[in-house]
Design goal:
Elements lengths: L5 E3 L6 E2 L12 E2 L5 E4 L2 E4 L15 E9 L2 E8 L2 E6 L7 E4 L9 E7 L2 E7 L4 E4 L4 E4 L7 E6 L2 E6 L2 E4 L16
Parallel strand pairs: 2-3
Antiparallel strand pairs: 1-5, 4-5, 6-7, 7-8, 8-9, 10-11, 11-12, 12-13, 14-15, 15-16
Length: about 180
Amino acid sequence: MPKVYRAVVGSHAGGVNTTYADDAIQPDEMRLVKNARLTDGFAEKRAGSQRLHTTAIASGWTSVFQWDSPLGSQVVGVANGNFYHFLRGVNTNPLKVALGLDTTQRVGWAIYREAGVNTLYFADGTSFYSFNGSSVTAISGLPAGISRPVVYKSRMFGLQDKNLHWSAVDNPLDWTITSGGG
């Protein structure tokens, strides 16, 4: 039997909070736990791994991300310019959406919670998209070349080369100066 290491990391009775932005978690919650399981306030190393799908999928992955979609836990990723999504417990293989994403850029991901529903936003430095768990929508009207989206204090932020841009409060799709974006 392998050794199990347990470490006291404070009271984390609230568990892992994947619902809110990093600035909104409670003192007894953790935002991210990698290769560990929380049990009774202890962090415990997980052993082994599990294959997520039955057959090998495309090579050329530039980004992979896990999020809690309105439909359940989902793994999404980009390979060879295509967007893939995999709903755990439902899909046996990732579903492919051909988007023509940049094959050399790393895709940036951000989860925005609006009206109690998570929406995943992603950008590849050329285009900006939203994903509701089942369909991808291209978003226009943002500054061209936005990459690395991040949510903080009810705003969406993104980089354009070395320039920082942001959305209006409570509206990740409005980046105009007249609405409070920049």
